[in-house]
Amino acid sequence: MYNFSVNPDRADSGSVKWSAMKKINPQVPSKIVPLSIADMELMTPPEIISGLQAFLSHTVLGYTIPTKGYLHAISNWMQQRHNWTIDHSWIVPSPGVVPALFNAVRAFTEEGDGVIIMPPVYHPFSRAITKNNRRIIENSLLKKGTDYYIDFDDLEKKAHNPKNKLLILCSPHNPVGRVWTKKELQKIADICLSNNVNIVSDEIHSDIVLPGYRHTVLASLNDTIAENCIICTAPSKTFNLAGLQVSNIIIKNDLLRRQFISTAVKAGYGALNIIGYKACEIAYTECSAWLDQFILLIAKNKTLCEDFIRENIPQIKITNMEGTYLQWWDCRALGMTKNELETFMTQQALIFGDEGYIFGHSGDGFERINLACPTSILESTLNRLKTALNKTLD
Ligand SMILES: Cc1ncc(COP(=O)(O)O)c(C=O)c1O
């Protein structure tokens, strides 16, 4: 059994989310833990720490190409965890999925082209499009009650426009937590392929799927789809390795892969860091049991939040999180504007999630709460929220 109750102290460690919290509220007391950006308030798996220590004791930290051990670990993981058979030659290492998205936009579209996304969605998708002088084409998700669905009629229309060349799909979806079904994925692919729209499928959250749900790798649906998509994977969300900047972009089609690599080369980057390769190898070969237990922690934290909010703050509606460890709270019935909500959360309740508006307008009035932390942190967060709301409503 792994111990998920230890709360690492990341204050002054340079952690992005801890530094952001201090910036937003410099008076924040030391016991408050931020629940924003998607890394974990948990120790990295012990197998990775001890494996890297052993590795560092005998290695030379020189320039390194992807090792056989690293490539093998990725293909085995895809086979065993996702039932997807890949060839080592399809794997293109990238120093992060976000750089890969920027690269894909440059590789597969021209300036002025439209790139389709499904908001509310992980905000760097928009940046990858606009910073490269392409146009964002919104195929907004449909919200029915607390659930989200794809608007296929709208997708069909947008894909049919020959100026729209690429879809960036988030699968599972951050922030709404949907794990798209095979049927939904097949329909997305049918629409895109029949309109010559390539798909970049960001599957960085694919290992974190709650009991009762199953992730399907888009490219595993059939060979034609595999030939027309780019699958972005990484051990970073799964095993809390984001600071090592390792991701694995898997591209079956030779031409698309060559285009992707040549665009990266033009930007001057290629190889990853030696510790990242090793950490990825250890994660995928030794940390399955850790991941299985981590998922149970997330399931427990999810239920805790749902039960507490339902009983104590029924105005907030929580979306059913099927995958990821990011819970999407609809706070609109609290009757605050998005700015009032942000001020209330960060200055009164001392809750530092991600503000929903960063994921697009349809996120106004929502909060994204990161559940990858010891359960006790969520208990104190929820109690602070209840107390602060009672004070405001008094
Ligand atoms: C959907 C999605 N893609 C990509 C990333 C970040 O990827 P990377 O750190 O590999 O650039 C995140 C991080 O939260 C994410 O949620």
Q: Main traits of this protein?
A:
13 strands; 14 helices; 394 residues; Aspartate Aminotransferase, domain 2; globular; alpha/beta; binds pyridoxal-5'-phosphate
Give a brief rundown of this model.
By secondary structure, the protein is α/β, with parallel strands linked by helices. Helices cover 42% and strands 14% of the residues. The strands form three sheets. It has a seven-stranded mixed beta sheet with strand order 1-9-8-7-6-2-3, sandwiched between helices. It has a four-stranded antiparallel beta sheet with strand order 10-11-13-12, with helices on one face. A two-stranded antiparallel ribbon has the order 4-5.
How would you portray this structure in words?
The chain is globular. By secondary structure, the chain is of the alpha/beta class. The chain has 14 helices and 13 strands. Helix content is 42%, strand content 14%. Helix 6 packs parallel to helix 7. It folds into two domains: 134 residues, Alpha-Beta Complex (Aspartate Aminotransferase, domain 1); 238 residues, Type I PLP-dependent aspartate aminotransferase-like (Major domain) (Aspartate Aminotransferase, domain 2, 3-Layer(aba) Sandwich). The structure holds pyridoxal-5'-phosphate. Pyridoxal-5'-phosphate binds next to helix 4.
Ligands in the structure? Answer: pyridoxal-5'-phosphate
Principal-axes geometry comes out as globular
The protein's oligomeric status is: single chain
Helical percent range?
40-55%
Structural class: alpha/beta
Which sequence of strands runs across the widest sheet?
1-9-8-7-6-2-3
Examine the secondary-structure arrangement and name the CATH architecture of the largest domain: 3-Layer(aba) Sandwich
What's the CATH class label of the largest domain? Alpha Beta
> Would you identify the CATH H-level superfamily of the largest domain?
Type I PLP-dependent aspartate aminotransferase-like (Major domain)
* Rounded average pLDDT: 97
Percentage beta strand? 5-15%
CATH topology (fold) name of the largest domain: Aspartate Aminotransferase, domain 2
Q: Any idea what the radius of gyration is?
A: 21 Å
Number of domains: 2
Which H/E pattern describes the elements? HHHEHEHEEEHEHEHEHEHHHEEHEEH
| Cα separation of the termini | 45 Å
Largest sheet: 7 strands, mixed
Number of strands: 13
> Any low-confidence stretches, pLDDT <50, length ≥5?
none
